[in-house]
Each structure stands twice: as C-alpha cells, then as structure tokens.
Specification:
Blueprint: H1 2-33, E1 47-49, E2 52-60, E3 63-70, E4 74-86, E5 91-104, E6 112-125
Antiparallel strand pairs: 1-2, 2-3, 3-4, 4-5, 5-6
Length: 132
C-alpha cells in the first residue's frame, strides 16, 4: 500500500511539473510576442516597421522567403532570411540571405548604388515606448 502511494505521488509530481513548464512557456510567449502585436508579418501584405516597409512572399515561424524591405532612401531584396524581436532595444533584427541592397544617392535622387550580398544583417528600431 505504501509503495502504491509513493508511485502515485511521483506520477502526480511529474504531471504537475510538466503542467508548470507548459504554463511557463505559454506565458513567456505571450510576454515576448505582445510588443509585436501591432507588427505582425503576413505573407503578401506590406507591414510598416518604423520608417521601413517590409513585404514577404512566405513565412514559416520566423523564417522569411521572398523579402522586400524599403524606406525613402534604401531598398533590400532577398531570397530568404529570418527576423528576431529584441525587446531590450524595442527593435527587430533582420538577417537576409542572397539578395541585393540599393542605396539612393542623396546628391542625385534618381540614381542609386547597388550591392549584392550573401548575408546582410540590420536592425529596425520600432516606435519609442512610453518609457523612452
């Protein structure tokens, strides 16, 4: 009888630990993704991030495919990449793979300089929070 009680107690403790871990993961995801609620990327739809407009053809988690990023003086296009939200900086870091970047020439607005890249990493600062 005592052994059965110990087995049941151990099973209960294991199930409780699994429940606590699952709840922690869900709460962590809510806390981390809540600041991005207004910045949800949707395939085929342009999304505004600060002064940049981002459009992607396909999204799988944080993996992106067919990426186009533009601002008034820059333009990026890449085959694929990924993004990461940086809560401590209130920014999003993009890591783009196989693409090109156009920088408009400020002295000649109709001209731009093109650079191809295997990998390009850049960070976009989001709107300032109330604390800043």
């Amino acid at each position: 009888m005592k052994n059965k009680f110990q087995v049941v107690s151990i099973i209960f403790l294991i199930l409780a630990a699994i429940g606590i871990m699952f709840s922690s993961v869900v709460i962590f995801k809510i806390i981390i993704t809540r600041p991005l609620a207004g910045y949800v990327l949707k395939a085929g739809k342009p999304t505004q991030f600060g002064e940049y407009t981002v459009q992607v053809d396909k999204i799988e988690g944080n993996k992106l495919y067919g990426i186009k990023v533009s601002s008034k003086d820059k333009r990026f296009q890449a085959e694929s990449g990924e993004y990461t939200y940086l809560p401590e900086k209130n920014a999003i870091k993009f890591s783009l793979i196989n693409g090109f970047a156009d920088d408009y020439d400020p002295e000649n607005p109709g001209e731009f300089h093109t650079l191809t890249f295997k990998r390009s990493i850049f960070t976009i600062k989001l709107k300032p929070s109330a604390k800043e």
